[in-house]
């Protein structure tokens, strides 16, 4: 049941009606409805893994109370049990076959232990929620949640279940405890954000997907120029797809009176790689910064810039591993870590550059294009199933065929991408890409009708899957 499907619209309409018109004065009843809706939503994907989600929630609820109520070695014991169970479950479903096959290939063993393991939907996202919950209790940033209904909703909240954002307990748990209030202003802003997310997914991402799939699946027979064009298209595809999902998730949560984590902040206008990652998949990068990068920096503080470089490379390698069990993902993360080295050596890691208004300068445009260029270079690894495929793509890109005219260039696609860039640019200082409350009612209505027309006329409704559901 995808956000862009008729089934989800009917489902959410029913939940919204019951939530605000039947149970609006009773937080407990609203939470019961939310949990039932979340489990129904998850069960529609694969009901067999619903038991795993419930079990993970129940065990984590119990362990959280034990961690918070213990001291010394006992606290460490319960914390370690929780982390081992959470990370172990994620490892089994996401990485077990990868390590078994890699070990067998390394030592030329006839592997008989590969299992047909299906990756449960959203397991990377809700596992990271659980881990951060344990660590925040251990670090006394958060008290254990005693209301089991609130905690189960925290783990399974359906708008952000399948592809994030990765919400921390400090943000979501207090909202689930208290009364929620619906306002017209919040409802209108939520609807705008959902509409913008639907436009990015249905019109931009889904229009590009058939082209990039054709290029990547047949790269051996295509020119370097065509492959490079495909990688550039993929940048816009994955941005429109993932940020479109995030916009809709945030909007649907907002309609339920709940604020979840912002996941994108106009990364297409980043002027260096550090700024790009501060604006791209924010919930994952902030999670890893708090729970991985910061502890590493403390451990490596005596090594100064060398220690900072090592911490960043390890952190980004973990980002690559988080995406899945492939060597290409590992090198994708590692390469992004290497990109940081010039910034560190020149003491420019934390320098933030504000874009000029109303248009960027030539220097800013150059910085933006260079940043997107190195991001696209790394995306070759992201889209390649094997290192052999990645090397094959790089070989063709860096051949004389790079200078040939790319195939599959369509004016319609370039026009749609231009609309995305222009609207993003006009709203780059706002909370999201379609925050237009500052305009007059007439202008707002024209823009609403324009997006609706674009979705109805150019929308591709056959592909409802989002890219990050596979992670």
Automatic annotation (TrEMBL):
Organism: Chryseobacterium potabilaquae
Family per record: Belongs to the membrane-bound acyltransferase family.
Record-level GO cellular component terms: plasma membrane
Compartments where located: Cell membrane
InterPro entries: Ac/AlaTfrase_AlgI/DltB, AlgI, MB_O-acyltransferase, MBOAT_fam
GO-annotated biological processes: alginic acid biosynthetic process
Membrane topology reported for the UniProt record: Multi-pass membrane protein
Molecular function in Gene Ontology: acyltransferase activity
EC number: 2.3.1.-
PANTHER family registered for this protein in UniProt: ACYLTRANSFERASE, PROTEIN-CYSTEINE N-PALMITOYLTRANSFERASE RASP
Keywords, in A-Z order: Acyltransferase, Cell membrane, Membrane, Transferase, Transmembrane, Transmembrane helix
Encoding gene (name): patA_1
Protein name: Peptidoglycan O-acetyltransferase
Source taxon at top rank: Bacteria
Chain ranges passing through the membrane: 7-27, 47-65, 77-93, 113-135, 147-166, 222-240, 307-323, 329-345, 365-387, 407-426, 446-468
